[in-house]
User: Fold these one by one.
Assistant:
Number 1:
Amino acid sequence: MKQTPVSVVSELSTMKALVVPENTPLTVAVERFSSNEGQHGIFLTDAAGRFSAVVDNRDLLNWARVQFNLSPGEVPLPVGKTRRLLNAKLVRDLAMPDSKRKAVHLTDTLAEALNRMARHDLEDIAVLDADGHVVNDLRLSEVLAFALRLQA
């Protein structure tokens, strides 16, 4: 795992993540996301088709809480974030500014991928080629299954 590149596991699976341009209307992206069970987020691409951000389940949950005027729960959202979510028109408006770091490259190791997934609390992470295009997603379940096969 410490030496195995992400590409080894990535080649074994098909992409299940939703990938949309960052200027997609929010309602369109949410409709597409909600029509396909098993997705854990939305990967966004810029005008050149390169990965630009991710909208994960937490972003979607926070948006839903604000849109449906639900109680803030145990951890209320900061005022600035609430305003941003209320005014969101495009899917990129939901993405956290630092979410571009929530991706791995084909050449990264599985250990690096797992560490990044743990750091950002992700079950699914974008896999990028050398040019920054999304070529697949790497799911925690795939990494665990691969690790178990190595031990057998």
Number 2:
Amino acid sequence: MRTIKILVLICIFSNGCRSQQGPEITFSFEVKSEEITSVTISKYNYDLEKMVEWKSLDNLIPQKTYQTTDEFLEPSIYALKLNTGKGIKIAVEQGGMVHIKMEDGIKLESKIASNLDFNKSIENLNNQFFAGMIQDFDKAMKENNQQRIAELEKEKDKVLLQFIRSMENLVMQMGPSAKAYDALGYFDLNKNSDFFEEMMTRFEAEYPSSGMSKSLKVRINKAAQLAIGSKMTNFKATNKEGVLVNLSDYEGSYILVDFWASWCRPCRVENPKLLELYKSFEGVKFEIIGISIDSDRGVWEKAIQKDGIVWNQILDKDQTIYKQYLLSSLPANFLLDQEGRIIAKNITAEELKTKLETFE
């Protein structure tokens, strides 16, 4: 009897008689359509900073409910994709039940999870701040009204600050969470580093050893490598003519690495100004490398022809180079000195002209 009592005490105080388990997330999938036969669940890996397939539920039968569980270690991001092609991304902030109805699409019913739709918030803000201005820009560009374009550029710069502050406020209201982590991916670290660091501090206070906090720290450290005075990391890619372009080959010249796209109005406004500068400073060791993130090669080539671009152009269709430099917005550029060090970022054609005049 004494031995049994001792064993009971050991079990109570050391948990030695059962396996330790943390809270769980239980996904409950309710199938409401015959067309839905499988759902693939991917989970965001904070170390790899990408989605990784986690589990697949196959041979689903209509009017049945299927469950699967995952250990909850910290707020997490999941992507759910049906065999029909439809899918959603969700943030799960704590352990518990996540109920999902699968009919025409995917409907989330949960108090501990939410849809990740920050892109819709950005679209709403974009319409709120820029809808009328976009039409004015298009009209001015079509008429080649440079005076009106210049006026709109100044107005755009003021409105852009309000737009960014509104984005920041939305994320601040989310607090440290998987949803906020996802939303931070829409911010350009080269342009919003102060806000990013402020949010990272809040994450570290709430979740000090989490994958989220560590991931944000890694991003900030990477951004520090793109600070003024740092040597820009190299890239290699083929240009429009199929010739290999190697950034390091341009050392000895001042280089503007210019990221753009055919659909980016501010980029298209800058192109004629850059062309004028490029021709004006032919005697200076100055080059431009244009990198477009267009998805359609034909549209990209048409924009090059229309804007009269004569410098090297690279199509970064899968955004490999774009992401290498932690970019998430356009226009964006880096001005490098003759040793390949960053001496300016996100400068206008007017600011570039002032810089070039000092190089002569």
Number 3:
Amino acid sequence: MKKLILTLILGALSMTANAVEIKDPENTLFLDVPAGRVTIQMFPQQAPVHVARIKELVREGYYDGKLWHRVIDGFMAQTGSPRGDGIGGSSKPDLKAEFNQMSHVRGVASMARTSLPDTANAQFFIMLASNPGLDGQYTVWGQVIDGMDKIDAIKKGDSRNNGLVTGPDSIIKMTIAADAK
């Protein structure tokens, strides 16, 4: 019996030790995907308008159930398209670009857009690998601080078909940490 109790205590302590510390719950996202939970720290100082839009859409439940429609191994995973086809965004107006000094390194969350800089709306992507060629071209608004292995597990598309995913995974739920119960 003592061994069982000790095992349970040690197991609980090891889970606590691996938990990421949430320093700013209002600017931290929980992104639940089929493989588990991903935690993203948002950067309101670098991209205030984009962070505000992401938070607004998360609180409206916009991202819940959205497909990871474009996923290119060694590049990025993209979501947020209303129809899951990479076209369009929310009913809200497009955003003026907030290009910043943040680099597109592995785990960075950045807004997708058309070829025009001021067309970001709701779609975003998470970098699976670093790509400095995107720096200064897309608005970086966050960084995965825990659970990048869960993003790596998202079903990949065919790179010969621009990463279009057949039978894509979806976002289960996105929540602002401050709102989590």
Number 4:
Amino acid sequence: MPEIAMKDLERQLKANKPSRVYLIYGTEVYLKQQAIDLLKKRCIPEVLPEFNYQRLDGTREPITVLMDAVEQFPMMADRRCVLLEDFDIARAPESSISILIDTIKRVPDSCVLIIWQNDDVTTEKNARMKKVAETCKKYGSVMKCLPPRPSDTARMLCDSAERLGLRMAMPEAYYMMELCGADLTNLLSELEKLSAAVGRKPITREAIDTYCTRSVDADVYRISRCILEGRSDEAFKLTRRLLVQKNSPVSIFTIMTGSFIDLYRAKALARNSGTAAELAEVFPGDYKGRGFRAENAMRDQSKFGAHQLRRYIDLLFEAELKLKGGRSDKEICLEQLIARLCMVQREGKK
């Protein structure tokens, strides 16, 4: 069976036709936890769960224990459930991988084996993980949990708000993501805070500003966006607020450069008809789990000329030398950089 998504998993379990084996892995922690919770809810029998459910700690239990666990008969139930958590597939010796693969092939119909990878190892970069994933696809189901696209995250926020008895429109969902960052676990936690604060009233931007905790990364990316959109006053206000809050000028600079580098890379790739997926593939270290950055850059790069983007990069390089190597006042250096970036933006509009 090919890789499945959350909706496929829900469909399988609703029809009471679970796969014998599930491999749950990827970089999105919230979606992995959601999948595991759903599997445990539907696959652990209500009758004698202490006998029909077994959790194995992959960091401590020898892999040989797994074979015995899956071959045990369920007690007064149709099936039993075995959860193997955090077995280090990427670094395990070949002998252990062979035992794991042999066990996957031999899981009986009376058992559901769930292999849960909490780390973010991928099949693309690890041969052992790829081998295990291919076996799981053949004998069961594989679910790769990646951060959703911004539009999907916004819809998820609106749906979650509705379940909490709140009313949230898509523009407010996007604004909340802009303010708090894209991490799903954090966003849903902030949504629960909003629920307690606003009750049944519609969620407004004012409520989000008042009750939600701002992400430093999100604020810094807003500075970059303000510069690129010509809102220099707002860029300076955000910078001053972050500095007053004792955020390091070097840290602010490091995060801020990301937006400009994204655009420069996207512009270069767009000249050869490249896509956001290709951008993320070329620079996996920067876009792993943050594919929305690549999508945004490919969407926005057409608004800027190549010369303008090169000027931004030149100014960032000069500022980096001063911030990280010189004895000059780092706060003044950062604010001077923002002023120069804003000047380049204004010149680019002429």
